Amino acid sequence: RKEVEQDPGPFNVPEGATVAFNCTYSNSASQSFFWYRQDCRKEPKLLMSVYSSGNEDGRFTAQLNRASQYISLLIRDSKLSDSATYLCVVSGTYKYIFGTGTRLKVLA
Amino acid sequence: NAGVTQTPKFQVLKTGQSMTLQCAQDMNHNSMYWYRQDPGMGLRLIYYSASEGTTDKGEVPNGYNVSRLNKREFSLRLESAAPSQTSVYFCASTVQGNQPQHFGDGTRLSIL
Questions:
Q1: Any residues with CB less than 8 A from the CB of A49 and at least 6 apart, and which?
Q2: pLDDT tens string for chain A (108 positions)?
Q3: Alpha-carbon distance B87 to A56, whole Å?
Q4: Which of A90, A98, B34, B80 allows an S-S link to B43, with CB 3.0 to 4.6 Å?
Q5: Would you call B30 an interface residue with chain A, using a CB distance cutoff of 8 Å?
Q6: B27 touches chain A (CB under 8 A)
């Protein structure tokens, strides 16, 4: 079993739609959680950290469920510019494990 | 506001050649990392340096060496390049473990 698993997609959604991604992790001792965005052939860029109480940044909402060992990302009112691959990252003291990413295509 | 700078951005090598990938950060971060990214796979850690003066192996260290030259710089060396090392290499830094990482824009390396 992979340490961090994501549905590779692609998720094809129309502009304005709401879309959600989940990510599961296997190490219950994991300490920090992040969502990164990666555009084609570019470097990963931090989208948001994920906190136990859940957190929101504009159209983006992240949730953490430690009991079930998954994190989620909700994107509301999708924009064409949201098209990218979304990487789930789980860390535990200097060790960062990346999911393979979920590809999102927002269609006009 | 440079952040993490990687050089070169592109490189083509022949099998058996050596080269060093350079990475520098100007954010006063303590920890630095080298990853490789291959199609269909997540980023895989090659080596990391938790702090100046220390280096540790990651998931895929074979065929690579690293040097943490000072707090700012962390280089990755391929002593004898092999086609299996064709990949995109990313350097990242973070103020300390468990904090978000900041990435350089990558080095695209092809080995023929």
A1: A32, A33, A34, A55, A62, B100
A2: 788 999 998 999 999 999 999 999 998 888 899 999 999 989 999 999 998 888 999 999 999 999 999 999 999 999 999 999 999 999 987 789 999 999 999 999
A3: 35
A4: A98
A5: no
A6: no
Per-residue buried b or exposed e for A37-62, using 16+ beta carbons within 10 Å of the residue's own CB: bbeeeebbeebbbbeeeeeeeeebbb
* Set of chain A residues whose Cβ sits within 8 Å of the Cβ of B35: 98
Pick from B43, B57, B95 the residue to mutate for testing the A interface (most A CBs within 10 Å): B43
What is the interface size between A and B, counted as CB pairs within 8 Å? 50
Q: What is the pLDDT of residues B64-98, one digit of tens each?
A: 999 998 999 999 999 999 999 999 999 999 998 78
Question: Quick check: B100 and A92 CB within 8 A?
Answer: no
Report the chain B residue with the minimal C-alpha distance to residue A50.
B100
Distance CA B103, CA B81 (A): 24
Q: What is the DSSP letter of B100?
A: P
